[in-house]
Fold this protein.
Amino acid sequence: MKEPLISIIVPVYKVEKYLNRCVESIVKQTYSNLEIILVDDGSPDQCPVMCDAWMEKDNRIKVVHKKNGGLSDARNAGMKISKGEFIGFVDSDDWIDQNMYQRLYEILSTDKSDISACGVKMFWEDSDLCQMLTQTNKCVLNREEAMKALIEESLIKQPVWYKLYKKELIRDILFPVGKCHEDAFWSYQVIGMAKRVSITDYVGYYYWQRKESIMGENYSIKRLDAIQALENRQSYLEENFPGLALTGKCKLWFFCIYHGQKILQYLSVQEQSKVIEYLNEVLHRHPFSSIEFNELSCKETFWIRISTASLTTACRIRNALKIGL
């Protein structure tokens, strides 16, 4: 019996130094029934030519050339033409173990899950060091457990690229075009649709941290998109997972505090004032009741109360004490 088709979507932009490593790792997968979609997002270097060259080498590869629209737009374009029963994502500066999709498919199939996820090892361009990005664990989570793990970023992390998804689960959930931290907008919606999520301790994905990448650059205001993503998630939790709403709210508060700490370190005084005002508006939209305070730890209550009185003061104290950085 032939294995089902897996579509792998690879957004491509300014990665000519890494693209061959990425595509070669996908082409050499032991799971062979693949549709490999390279989405050239208007890359100004040699990537478009390289994509076409790969298409000539392997008939499983499709290439989409499009005007630059960002990572989300590229992923959406790939999803639109995908034919697979399952979908995976690989970023074009990363690479994967040759058994990754075989293992992810087998786990998902055996457990009758909607999503499977493997381990991720992280490497830095300017260092010989590497470390695990994910926890080492092997389990099957139900919907509530999976959402809790995502909120806590414990057994499930936000990134989409180390997971395998049933297409029917994600086909109508688009990535937000023009947003930074696009995975944070997308992942909670997908987890909320999944009945079962399988986690394996097998390490299959290798994440490459480039100095010039969005996540590798110094702090900038565009990273505040993550706050909007968490606000959207909070509304979703309150409607669909009320038992997890307090956990989500607490994470939202401490994420705002973290960004407050960062802007005090990296932005100008004028920019700081605008961002602090924005963060205060977010926090005021999500207050804690006295009953909710009773369910928080003493440490959480302490920082939330200080932040309520003065977010700037709380951030300065935490920076001085090097907390949360």
